[in-house]
Design a protein that fits this description.
The chain is mainly alpha-helical. It has 2 domains: about 250 residues, Serine Threonine Protein Phosphatase 5, Tetratricopeptide repeat, CATH 1.25.40; about 160 residues, Serine Threonine Protein Phosphatase 5, Tetratricopeptide repeat (Alpha Horseshoe). It is built from 19 helices and 10 strands. The strands form 5 sheets. It has a two-stranded antiparallel ribbon. The longest helix is centred in the first third of the chain and has 26 residues. About 45% of the residues are buried.
């Protein structure tokens, strides 16, 4: 996932169709591709194409957020160089690690649009209408989700008039311009609303996008848009349908022994090349990135189930090695280490979204109630607290997001949403080469658009200062 992925928005789409543009005079048909019209002829073909789109989703956002925020530290035992420049905020548009998410996102979107183009064209029986609608709903939601991930990563700011990303609704060779942040959000919301009218409530496979997953995406979009009413509405839909895990089952989420509170996850099997645990821990017994001491010290190590679920302590590793490891993705058998499903949306996040929205709406009691409910589920013997002012409650919710959602792709963006600096404590910056504070307004506070995209697309505008 840290390799320099060569596919970008302009070239991704071009590669998919240029092979079919051979000279008419020669009438040569490529032998290594299948024309879309031939690929999508039945309802089963639509499902195959949809699964192909799901398969292109990756954990790149999760790892990049770990590298660029304050949730990880770089141990001295990591001599691989993997991701180190990004961790030190030494990146630009030529850096494959930080820009890989652009390619992955638009590859997924291109696959989605190709299938969508044939949903209403394939021959089918009347009895297939329901499943076709479901597939169409999943595709629309997946397109919205992928654009939203691109927006989180590459928007110049999370403000209405800021630069967003191109919204691709067809699979064509083009040179699209960046929409504004608000324009991008509007298209995301439209796709999600359309998806919600198509996916049946009886569909509950949490390795795909269900109705609850759509609501969860809508809730997350809402807090970036600062639409607090929508944030309450959609997070409540999820909370009412999917309760929090108990302290007895919570650790099982991260070993794939339990699906409690998991709304949507990316299934990972033996044949998958992406094992998220490999980013944090090399099976040769090298900790590549360890949990930050700042994060470790936020937990009640005795009573908070998240501490033992998220962090592994091993004081037998020897001198010069980290005693702490990211535990979220270390599961797997001896033959398949670091192989776990990637959890994209959980009920815990929904409680924090609703708590934040209530606080922003000055409903402090309701916001505190959600915060206390989450803490009670995670911390044995927890005693509820009250909050007298909005600022204190919001700061506490932000801290709770740090404790609840590390290594899930949120911290960097949470700080950006609140226009706060990324700050590493001295103990976490030993090998950072001075990368201690990243303030709003500095170049690296916003991820760059890939240089390859800028070169290929004359309408593309790079983020400021790059």
């Amino acid at each position: 996932m840290l390799n320099n992925n060569k596919f970008f928005l302009y070239t991704v789409i071009l590669i998919g169709i240029v092979v079919s543009s051979c000279s008419k005079e020669l009438d040569i048909q490529p032998t290594d591709t299948i024309d879309d019209a031939k690929a999508y002829q039945t309802v089963a073909d639509l499902n195959s194409g949809l699964l192909g789109a799901y398969a292109s989703l990756s954990g790149t956002t999760i790892t990049n957020v770990s590298l660029t925020s304050d949730e990880c530290t770089l141990p001295g035992e990591n001599s691989t160089g993997r991701g180190v420049a990004t961790y030190r905020w030494q990146y630009d548009g030529s850096s494959g690690t930080i820009t890989a998410g652009w390619a992955y996102g638009y590859v997924t979107i291109d696959r989605v649009n190709r299938v969508l183009n044939y949903v209403d064209k394939v021959s089918s029986k009347p009895a297939d209408a329901g499943i076709k609608n479901q597939y169409k709903g999943e595709l629309l939601a997946l397109r919205a989700y992928s654009h939203f991930e691109l927006l989180r990563n590459f928007a110049s700011k999370y403000e209405a008039s800021a630069m967003g990303v191109p919204y691709m609704e067809t699979s064509v060779v083009s040179k699209p311009s960046r929409l504004s942040f608000s324009e991008t959000v509007a298209k995301i919301k439209a796709d999600l609303l359309a998806a919600k009218s198509l996916i049946p409530s009886s569909f509950t496979d949490n390795t795909r996008i269900t109705l609850q997953a759509v609501s969860a995406i809508q809730a997350r979009v809402a807090i970036y848009e600062k639409n607090w009413d929508d944030a309450v509405k959609y997070s409540t839909e999820v909370i009412n349908a999917t309760p929090l895990a108990s302290s007895n089952t919570f650790t099982g989420i991260w070993t794939d022994a339990s699906n409690d509170e998991v709304i949507w996850k990316l299934k990972r099997v033996e044949s998958d090349s992406e094992r998220l645990g490999d980013f944090y821990y090399d099976i040769k017994n090298i900790v590549l990135y360890a949990p930050a001491f700042e994060l470790i010290n936020t937990y009640d190590k005795v009573n908070d189930v998240r501490y033992r679920a998220y962090i592994k302590f091993d004081n037998t590793r020897g001198i010069g090695k980290s005693n702490y490891m990211v535990n979220k993705y270390l599961s797997g058998s001896s033959g398949l280490p670091n192989l776990t499903d990637i959890k994209l949306y959980r009920t815990g996040e929904m409680y924090l979204i609703r708590a934040e929205a209530y606080a922003q709406k000055n409903s402090l009691d309701l916001g505190a109630a959600d915060l206390n409910a989450l803490r009670s589920a995670r911390i044995d013997g927890y005693a509820s607290v009250n909050f007298a002012d909005k600022a204190t409650l919001l700061n506490t919710i932000l801290l709770e997001r740090y404790k609840e959602l590390p290594f899930e792709g949120h911290r960097f963006f949470d700080l950006r949403r609140n226009n706060l600096p990324i700050t590493r404590e001295p103990a976490d910056a030993t090998n950072a080469l001075g990368a201690v504070t990243l303030s709003p307004g500095t170049k690296e506070y916003v991820y760059p658009i890939p240089n390859a995209e800028i070169r290929a697309n004359s309408n593309m505008i790079q983020n400021p200062l790059y």
